[in-house]
């Protein structure tokens, strides 16, 4: 079965600083990887996804993630944090033959002035 | 398009009461999902419906039943609510399967006393 681990349940950055949210996956078959964002009291919204095309994936709001098979990682980055980036971020993994989307436990991003 | 809609937005139940959470999507998607979100646990799959007429258990199905009423609608029923079912419930849908983006509803907050 496939799974993801998000390192750090809370991450705090200053406005304008680099955002780095870590995600490592485990899968016995080629995975599909996703980052979702959840703003307070809302549902989840897709930031970006990797489906075996380019290893560097660009998403909405200036976020990007790089698939590294050798490190089994799919870390999310953004060069310069905005106050509006404060939210909960979830990494998730799926496989082509399945339906289940397995989520990490989430990382809460706090952006300070 | 409304996307994925859920009713009710908020519900308080007493232990032992029953209720049905409703979900509908207007994107003509084949697959629909029910998740629950608990603090520090991420999202966990309760049930899913790969296509109209089929349903399958997810990671945490105990205490729940589902009905795929038609292609648009997928309901989740709690026959005898327990305090452990206090959670936020999200419905999602996608075209089909693992590599496709899932689209989430706004959630239903359920409190079981």
Structure write-up:
The complex is a heterodimer of chains A (113) and B (113). By secondary structure, chain A is mostly beta strands. Helix content of chain A is 0%, strand content 57%. Chain A contains no helices and eleven strands. In chain A, the strands form two sheets. In chain A, strands 2, 4, 5, 9, 10 and 11 form a six-stranded mixed sheet that branches. Chain A has a five-stranded antiparallel sheet with strand order 1-3-8-7-6, with no helix packed on it. Chain A is globular, with a radius of gyration of 13 Å. In chain B, strands 2, 4, 5, 6, 9, 10 and 11 form a seven-stranded mixed sheet that branches. In chain B, strands 1-3-8-7 form a four-stranded antiparallel sheet, with no helix packed on it. Chain B is globular. The termini of chain B are far apart. The A-B interface holds A 9, 32, 34, 36, 41-46, 49, 51, 90, 94-106 and B 4, 31, 33, 40-45, 48, 50, 56, 58-59, 90, 92, 97-99, 101-107.
Into which percent range does the helicity of residues of chain A fall? Answer: under 10%
Principal-axis shape of chain B? globular
DSSP summary, beta strand count of chain B: 11
Quickly count the helices of chain A: 0
Instruction: Give the largest interface.
Output: A-B, 26 and 26 residues
Strand content of chain A: over 45%
| Biggest sheet descriptor of chain B | 7 strands, mixed
Q: Termini separation of chain A (Å)?
A: 41 Å
Low-confidence stretches of chain B: none
Name the quaternary structure. Answer: heterodimer
How much helical structure, as a percent, in the residues of chain B?
A: under 10%
Strand content of chain B: over 45%
